[in-house]
């Protein structure tokens, strides 16, 4: 029998942004929460720069503000996004996304992933309802209608009413719970670095689908952008091994001088691209949030935002169940959460995969289709305005 110190209402596996924000969303309750993380407490307290800039929608910003994390992010790390352009090959035509005229607000805000992690860690540390259990992995997890038992790598068993998996798109906890997933290893990698450049970006992002590559230029401080280059994994590895001088020369050639002369402003990072869609988002006394449920392709920059909204929805369901005197792992609540996430995320997930397939194909018909598609979208206002509104929700 475990002691009282090993009994929790909820065990969250994974202290990434979604896992930590979920724990923070429960702060106003009396629930006892454990957050299990395989990294050390020092790594959580001092998250290293990993190259990733997160394009936060206004909805995600509201959630971060509600849980006290938004104001913990320095203003200097918040870069407004005043527009976006989508380019296809050498065509001068660009599909434009801009804020509504007169709104005075950006489409969204770019924030380094490490700064979001740092702010959420500080938020959790100021609360006393959540206990961080760092330096441990989960080696077993069993659930039933009456609760969950989670076994850690040091042999400690945690008993809970609900276990929540938030441990990445290749979630080990999801596997332990017996929940399958469609996992697509795309064979591509995203190479990311910050660059200083001589041409102004005017706080406008560029997504450029070119032959055998996709380039995204995300505007940060004046004269600085985050540059994301998506290539076949072996080609990305080749560029990663280049010296800084050779890499910059290659980068300038690939960007066709759009940013002018460039210098490196950070180390380079590379991430293999994998998409996932869990077959279920819940099970008896268990739920999946964030990438453990849905791992989006990064081309639309919406994976983080879907993850943040999924934790908010699950937390809301739990708090409502508590208020109504029901169990926090109430089956009807968990099924309702799954329906909501499936309906809200499926169109974007599958639509993104279709776009990626179209824009990564080098077949002449595909090149023509994407050129026509961009021009068609530009002249159908509800498509452009709908996407812009989605960014602002």
UniProtKB/TrEMBL annotation:
Keyword Zinc carried by entry: no
Documented EC number(s): 1.14.13.-
Keywords: FAD, Flavoprotein, Monooxygenase, Oxidoreductase
Keyword Flavoprotein: yes
Cofactors demanded by this protein: FAD
Domain of life: Bacteria
Single annotated GO MF: oxidoreductase activity
Domain called FAD-binding: residue spans: 8-338
Pathways involved: Cofactor biosynthesis; ubiquinone biosynthesis
Family according to the record: Belongs to the UbiH/COQ6 family.
Name of the protein described by the UniProt record: 2-octaprenyl-3-methyl-6-methoxy-1,4-benzoquinol hydroxylase
Organism of provenance: Mesorhizobium escarrei
Lineage: Bacteria, Pseudomonadati, Pseudomonadota, Alphaproteobacteria, Hyphomicrobiales
């Amino acid at each position: 029998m475990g002691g009282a110190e090993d009994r929790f209402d909820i065990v969250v596996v994974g202290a990434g942004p979604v896992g930590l924000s979920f724990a923070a969303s429960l702060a106003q309750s009396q629930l006892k929460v454990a957050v299990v993380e395989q990294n050390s407490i020092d790594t959580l307290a001092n998250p290293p720069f990993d190259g990733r800039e997160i394009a936060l929608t206004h909805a995600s910003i509201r959630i971060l503000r509600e849980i006290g994390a938004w104001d913990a992010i320095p203003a200097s790390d918040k870069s407004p996004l005043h527009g976006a352009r989508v380019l296809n090959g050498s065509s001068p035509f660009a599909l434009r996304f801009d804020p509504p005229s007169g709104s005075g607000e950006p489409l969204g805000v770019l924030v380094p992933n490490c700064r979001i992690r740092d702010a959420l860690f500080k938020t959790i540390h100021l609360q006393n309802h959540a206990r961080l259990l760092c330096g441990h992995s989960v080696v077993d997890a069993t659930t039933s209608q009456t609760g969950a038992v989670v076994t850690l790598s040091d042999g400690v068993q945690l008993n809970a009413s609900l276990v929540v998996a938030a441990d990445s798109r290749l979630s080990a906890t999801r596997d332990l719970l017996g929940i399958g997933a469609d996992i697509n290893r795309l064979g591509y990698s995203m190479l990311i670095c910050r660059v200083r450049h001589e041409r102004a970006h005017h706080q406008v992002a560029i997504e450029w689908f070119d032959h055998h590559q996709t380039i995204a230029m995300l505007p940060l401080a004046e004269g600085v952008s985050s540059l994301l280059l998506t290539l076949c994994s072996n080609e990305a590895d080749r560029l990663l091994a280049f010296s800084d001088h050779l890499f910059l020369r290659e980068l300038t050639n690939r960007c066709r001088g759009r940013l002018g002369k460039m210098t490196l402003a950070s180390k380079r990072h590379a991430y293999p691209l994998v998409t996932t869609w869990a077959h279920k988002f819940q099970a008896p006394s268990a739920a999946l949030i964030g990438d453990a449920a849905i791992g989006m392709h990064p081309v639309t920059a919406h994976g983080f935002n879907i993850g943040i909204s999924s934790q908010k929805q699950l937390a809301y369901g739990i708090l409502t169940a508590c208020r109504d005197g029901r169990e926090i792992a109430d089956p009807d609540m968990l099924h309702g959460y799954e329906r909501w996430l499936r309906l809200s995320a499926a169109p974007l997930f599958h639509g993104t995969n279709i776009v990626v397939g179209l824009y990564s194909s080098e077949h002449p018909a595909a090149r023509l289709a994407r050129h026509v598609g961009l021009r068609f979208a530009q002249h159908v206002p509800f498509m452009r305005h709908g996407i812009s509104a989605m960014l602002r929700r």
